[in-house]
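Researcher: Re-running this chain for the archive, since the previous output was lost when a drive failed. Same request as before.
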Amino acid sequence: MKRLLTIELQKIWLNKASRILTLTYFILLTSIALIASIKFDLGIFKFHLAEMGIFNFPYIWHFNTYIAAILKFFLAIVIVSMMANEYSYGTLKQNLIDGMSKKEFILSKFLTVIVFALASTVFVFVMSLILGLCFSSYTEIGIIFSDLEYLVAFFVKLIGFFSLCLFLGILVKRSAFALGFLLVLSFVEAFIRGYLNFQAFPDSPTAGYITQFFPLESMSNLIVEPFSRLSVVKNIGTKIGVENTKDYGVDFWAMLIVAVWILVLNYCSYKILKKRDL
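Model: Regenerated structure tokens:
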């Protein structure tokens, strides 16, 4: 496994575009810290994000993993390009000629996906811990290390999304088409979700029961938006008579659905590669 992973990481690092995108991704993750410096002072209206509690433990685990997940598209481009380059440069055929089996090839790609997801998770953990220790009003050990399940959900979410990108890269062979297919899939899911919510099953939870099994929707469900969880937003809602009953926890069922998608997508990637004449 170490040999397979080393080969893949060398391919990515030696590719200038992939190297720049990877570095850009982690630099942008670091930029989350800049949120702490955002201040607005317009007379009686003063707005300072850090003072609103977004970096308080344990809320910071929820907030940072949600924001970091938005930036995953940078690594998605790397994953898709990684697969497209195998076809463009003929390295896939050469690896197979050199004795690598198609099963080992898919395994090497999946190991790379896991490494990217793990590195991102560790990076977000360290960054969140530093920001929390600097800005949080609560620094008790028990509070600091509570709600760490958001990091687990973030890790699973990245593996699921990158597995989808890998599958699309193998399916259509071209990075631009694979990313376009990903965009089309998001539109299709949004259209079906809208139809089920407003036409087929209005004022009913049935639509949610169905759409939770969609690939992108299931990954999105792992980490619910954190903004309405802020006390200042809740207070505004209370004043205007809007009751917030949203569950912000990480749902084990949602995680299981994504885990199944990870298995299905990687198995399909292997089957496509196995049957395809290279």
